[in-house]
Amino acid sequence: MKMKKYIPYLIAFSFLLTVFSCTKLDEELYDKIPGNLYPENDNQIANLSVEAYTKFKDLADDKGWWFLAQEISSDEFCAPTRGADWYDGGKWVNMHRHQWTNDDEGVNRMWGAFWTGITTSNQVLDMMRELPQNDALMAKMKEVEVLRSFFYYLLLDNYGDAPYLTSVNDAPAQPFKIPRAAMYDSLVTTITAALPYLKPINNKYMVTRYVGFALLAKLYLNAEVYTGNPQWELAGQYTDSVLAGPYMLVNDVKSPFATNNENNPEIILSIPYDEDNFQGFRIHMRTLHYQHNLKYDMPVGPWNGLAVVPTHFDRYETNDLRREAYHIFGPQYDVNGNIIIDGETNKPLDIDPYLPALYMQAPDFTPEQIRTTGARLGKYEIKMGAKENLSNDFPLFRITDFYLMKAETEIRLGRSGDEWINPIRQRAGVSTWSGATLNELLDERGRELYMEGHRRQDQIRFGTWGNAWWEKEASGPERETFPIPKWATDLNPNLL
């Protein structure tokens, strides 16, 4: 099991565990550090934000649904119904076809996950405000404010108008929503003011100055969607600040997603998943065939579900290294090199990369079609002996995204983005471009950033979100955000 560098994810608030002891019988003893003495040192200050960071954990799986919602609602990935499996009340089909309601699981859990991160950050900040103030504590408070801004960025991106609260102690019982544009303005102001306090270091498990730059670049990149006013110049400027940081492209397309990717120089901010100690990343269980445990010597059986949308698979040229690096298809063999036999069809397991339909039932589809079609996700390394949870760090921000963001701002400003696209295409083994268009760039973002949680936002920004694709009909602009869950509006009518 690999050791994570971000130790605070695995510990609790240190001041709750500190015990003073001494041998003088007349000395006053404490079971914890008195408030007027805490924090005593930089390490104690550093640990104050731990609880807020742990709220990243639920983003990648069904407890929080953010990653699933961004990808399954897009034109690149889906969760097909395979006979009796994967219908689950229609939640997967609804997400892909943009037919969700205000009571679908993804809508409910995503809202809850974002607000858990926001509320925990505010609780930490309220506690910090009551401590003796100094420069180190102020820097830590600014870090947590930007961490909270990350959760708010996800909230405004996915739900639009929503409450904006900066304290738990002073929060109203039933807050009102504010306009999406007003939340955008508040986030830009908060993050910009925090930048001088954030550390200009390479630490993939904390909010650094480069994470602040990245958040501002993302906000400005999507400003037209959020406010109606494009901010391409500012998006390009803050993207430049990220590109000037300590990050670089690696030589291969797979290592940023390896099991031991914690030191990969492409990653700016990531979630440090661990199969035992920081669980919550089970995408391999959701995508692999039932008997892929034989291929990876897994002690658990996968669930045979999620797969690439066939039209997205065709975006990759046959010589594109990412085509095979990011997908699992073709004949499948066990750890000893023997062909795997499907347990129901009794035929060799051969994954046809082309999924025939989103909803597959007999007799309209054969057992082979139901069980063995659709290229499966192979982007995140599945190590031999993988358990139900992966230990791969999940990249929230990665440098190739900012290469392509820089290309986008340049193209939108009437300039060439080729110099930022071509290094990525060269690494993938495909030809370089001259005079790349926005449509070509959107396809390249899909190929490179496949299954990293960006596709829904990209399609909305590029204007393809409402289009019909594969088994999704055209949808209206009301589907660009998710509805606030029914349970939330039942509790607080001010959210209606």
Protein architecture, described:
Mean pLDDT is 93; it is low at 3-33. The two termini are 47 Å apart. This protein has a two-stranded antiparallel ribbon. A two-stranded parallel sheet has the order 2-8. The chain has a two-stranded antiparallel ribbon with strand order 3-10. The longest helix has 25 residues, at 105-129. Helix content is 39%, strand content 5%. With 496 residues, the protein is mainly alpha-helical.
Pairing-aware structural class of the strands and helices?
Answer: mainly alpha
Helix/strand order, N-terminal first: HHHEEHHHHHHHEHHEHHEEEEHEEHHHHH
Number of helices: 20
* Count of strand segments: 10
Shape: globular
Helix content estimate: 25-40%
Supply the key terms.
496 residues; mainly alpha; two-stranded antiparallel ribbon; two-stranded parallel sheet; 10 strands
Summarize the entry for a quick read:
By secondary structure, this protein is mainly alpha-helical. The chain has helices spanning 42-46, 50-53, 66-72, 91-97, 105-129, 135-159, 180-194, 209-221, 223-227, 232-243, 283-287, 293-296, 310-313, 321-325, 367-372, 399-412, 418-427, 438-448, 455-462, 486-491, and strands at 77-78, 81-82, 267-271, 307-308, 327-328, 330-331, 350-351, 359-360, 376-377, 394-398.
